[in-house]
Design goal:
This protein has helices at residues 3-9, 22-35, 80-87, 107-122, and strands at 10-17, 42-46, 49-56, 59-66, 71-77, 92-95, 124-126, 135-138, 147-154, 159-166, 169-176, 180-182. By secondary structure, it is of the alpha+beta class. The protein has 2 domains: 3-126, NusG, N-terminal domain (Alpha-Beta Plaits, 2-Layer Sandwich), CATH 3.30.70; 135-182, SH3 type barrels, CATH 2.30.30. The strands form 3 sheets. A 5-stranded antiparallel β-sheet has the order 11-10-9-8-12, with no helix packed on it. Strands 2-5-1-6 form a 4-stranded antiparallel β-sheet. A hairpin with an 8-residue loop joins strand 8 and strand 9. The protein starts with a helix and ends with a strand.
Length: 183
């Protein structure tokens, strides 16, 4: 089957899974497709994620965050046998659509989703662990064990302006996300 013919038949569907089982469903589905020699009837299986920086124990850690927890998007030949195969996979609850027939995504929806996934792979989103007015404890640096209040957050620099009391006076100090802990 040539590529142009294949893309005409393939449609994208949203599959609802048990939350947290997206990766497991993708692995099982990939294995079953291979075992049954159905690679030509299935295209890509996408778990929409973005890379996110978190601060854990004072260190920056990059981790994946699901954009739509509990959902995967799958490119598939639209026939009852293939739809039943996907529905029969452990961890799959149902396709999005009506009770009798799943509804495929429009090309524009697919394009937007795939672009969003590609963009989020390239850029890293920093999780902002603090909010203005929040009470924090300094855990690193010369002000260790000082308690303060977040005055301002600078996510692009991963810094926070904190008001602490030094020698009886409220003083603003700028610290990195990794130097603070929420109270």
């Amino acid at each position: 089957m040539d590529q142009s013919n294949k893309t005409k038949i393939m449609k994208w569907f949203v599959v609802h899974t048990l939350t947290g089982h997206e990766g497991k469903v993708k692995r099982i589905l990939t294995k079953v497709i291979k075992e049954k020699n159905l690679e030509s009837a299935f295209g890509r299986i996408v778990i929409p994620v973005e890379n996110q920086v978190r601060v854990r124990k004072g260190k920056k850690v990059i981790e994946e965050r699901r954009l739509y927890p509990g959902y995967i998007v799958i490119e598939i030949e639209d026939n009852d046998e293939n739809l039943r195969l996907v529905n029969g996979v452990s961890g799959v609850t149902h396709f999005l659509g009506s009770k009798t027939k799943p509804i495929p995504l429009d090309e524009s929806e697919v394009k937007a989703l795939l672009e969003q996934v590609e963009e989020s792979k390239e850029k890293v989103v920093t999780k902002i662990p603090f909010t203005k007015g929040e009470r924090v404890t300094v855990v690193d640096g010369p002000f260790t064990d000082f308690i303060g209040t977040v005055e301002d957050v600078f996510p692009e620099r991963e810094k926070v302006k904190v008001l602490v009391v030094i020698f009886g006076r409220t003083t603003p100090i700028e610290l990195g996300f990794h130097q603070l802990k929420s109270m």
